[in-house]
Design brief:
about 375 residues, 16 helices, Collagenase (Catalytic Domain), Serine Threonine Protein Phosphatase 5, Tetratricopeptide repeat, binds zinc ion, five-stranded mixed beta sheet, three-stranded mixed beta sheet, about 55% helix
Length: about 375
Amino acid sequence: MVNKSCIIKLLIILFLCSGICTGVEEKSSIDKEKLKKRVELFLKENNVTLRRNVEDVFLLAEIYEKEGKDKDAMFLYQEGLKVNSWRLDYQSKLAQLMYKYGDKKQAVEKVKIVSQYAEDEELLIKAEEFLFNLGMNPVKSINKTERKLIKDQEIVLVPIGKVNKYLLSEVKHKLQEKMGISYSVMEEEIDPGKFDRSYLDKYTIDTKRKLLVSFLRLIPEQNKRFEELENQGQFNASRLILELKDNYIIEKVSKVKGYLGITRKDIFNGNSNFLFGWAGKDYGVMSYHRFLATFNQEPPNRSRLCDRIVKQGVSSSFFILGIPRCTNPTCIRSYPHNLTEHDHKGMELCPWCREQLKLILDRKR
Ligand SMILES: [Zn+2]
C-alpha cells in the first residue's frame, strides 16, 4: 500500500524532475507540417508569444537550412533573433547565410558579436576562423596593459576534462594581472573519470526514496528523465585534488608554486550541495559550471564569465600560496554564499591581501 506521505514524496519528485529536465520534443519525431503551422501562427501574434515559442521558429529555420531553402531559413532566423537576439548560435548561422548571399557587412557585424560574447568554445572557434579568413583580428578581451610579472613564481592551471581553451587563455592573462605572478596552462587534460555523485543521488538519499524511484522507473517517460539525471552529476573536489597531487609533485627548487585544476563540470565536497572552488596549500580545484550563462539562463557574456572565474581563481591561488582568507567584504577573495554574492564582490584585492601576497612572494624568492 502506498501511504499519503509516499504520494506526497512522489509528487515532489515528479515536480522536481519535471523542473530539471523540461521535456523537449525529440528532433527526430518532429512533424514538420504541424511545426510550420505553429510558426505561422506565432509570427502573426505579438512579440511576447513569439518569444515564448521562439525555439519552434529556430527549429523550423534549421530544417529549412538543411533542406537548402536558405532564404526561408534566413527569414526565420531573423524573425527569431528579433525577439531573442542573444541566441549566438543562431546569430552565427544567420551570419554564414548572409555572407553566402553577399551581405558581408552585416555578417561580419554578427560574427564580431559572437566572437566577443560567446561562452561556447565551438561557436568561438567558428567565429574567429571566419574573421581570420577575412583578414580581421578576432575580438579578444585579453587585457593588454599587463603589468610586470614575477616570472620565477608560477601556478599551473590544469584542465580537468574538456575545458574551453580560449576561455582558459583569457583567464590566465587576467590572473597574471591580478596576482602579479606567472600562470601557465597544462597542455594535457586530466581525465576525471565518472561522476562521484549523480543528480539522481539527490533524490535517492534513503531507502524509501530509492524504492519510489524504482517504482517510477516502470513509467518509460519517468525512466528517461531519471536516466538523464543519472548521467549528469558532480565530481568530488577532494578526489580531484588527490589526482592532482598524484600527477604533479612540487619540487622545492622549482618555480612552480602550485597546481590549480579547472573543470567545466559541477563539484562538491562532503555534504555540500556544490562548490565554486576548493583549495589548500599547493593544490586547488575550481569549477565554472555555475558561472555559465547556460546554467543561469542568462544571455551569454564571456567577459562576465571570465571575471567570475578570475575571482574564484584569485581566491584559490591565495590558498595555494598558503594565505588565509581575509575579512574584507569588498575584497575579490571574500567568501560568496551564492552567485549573486560572487558577482557583487569587487575585482580588486584589499590592502591586507595585497600585503600578505607581497610578503609570501618575497619569502618564496
Ligand atoms: Zn582581502
